[in-house]
Design a protein that fits this description.
30% of the residues lie in helices and 36% in strands. With 205 residues, the chain is α+β, with helices and mostly antiparallel strands. It is globular.
Length: 205
């Protein structure tokens, strides 16, 4: 377990530390994050075949969204996910015997996150919100689906893939490292008194 994970467990198990942490977030919140470039390696060099007997890769339609949002592992509401589909987002998924096993989103218009927002060029796509359901974890679905998303986006003329990774998010870092993705910039994001916020560039790679 990473140091950040051990600290999080200690804070969550101690009521006083948890209250102290929650109070501190209302005064000053600091996060570090990378902007990452993906799709830099020939897809054929990536060993990302799923470890399941059969699968279908599909772009999820509105009719799929209700099933997706009803899964308890999905935090977003049906309305929010449907709104994404009407606002420049695409959602690609893997279905195993008709059941959604993993999915991820991309935005073709902008990067719109808590930390940073910017418009995309016509050859760019912002990749986000990847999830493999617990029953299917450890079966190499997320890397495979990411490569499939690269392929489909290239067919649409999108050849530059951007994502954001929280500095302490070890699973996301491992996932992207497997795909030979590279951090391009490191930022610190600061929010003061729940009102004033700014992302500051710390390093270019």
């Amino acid at each position: 377990m990473s140091l950040s994970g051990k600290l999080a467990q200690m804070v969550n198990k101690n009521p006083f530390l948890r209250r102290l942490y929650d109070a501190s977030q209302k005064i000053l919140h600091v996060s570090f994050f990378y902007i990452v470039r993906e799709g830099l390696t020939d897809d054929g060099r990536l060993n990302v075949k799923p470890k399941i007997d059969s699968w279908d890769v599909v772009f999820l339609k509105p009719s799929d969204i209700k099933d997706l949002s009803e899964n308890p592992e999905v935090p977003e509401s049906t309305d929010l996910l449907l709104e994404r589909l009407t606002n420049g987002y695409l959602c690609i998924g893997i279905k195993h015997r008709g059941e959604i096993a993993a999915y991820m989103w991309c935005n073709l218009r902008e990067c719109r996150e808590r930390y940073v927002r910017f418009d995309l060029r016509k050859d760019e796509a912002y990749l986000m919100d990847a999830r493999t359901f617990s029953l299917y974890r450890g079966k190499n679905l997320a890397p495979y689906l990411r490569v499939e998303l690269y392929r489909h986006l290239r067919q649409m003329g999108r050849t530059k893939f951007i994502s954001i990774t929280d500095y302490w998010n070890t699973p996301a870092s491992r996932f992207k490292k497997k795909l030979h993705a590279k951090p391009q910039k490191l930022f610190v994001w600061v929010k003061f008194l729940m009102k004033y916020e700014r992302a500051v560039l710390l390093k270019r790679y």
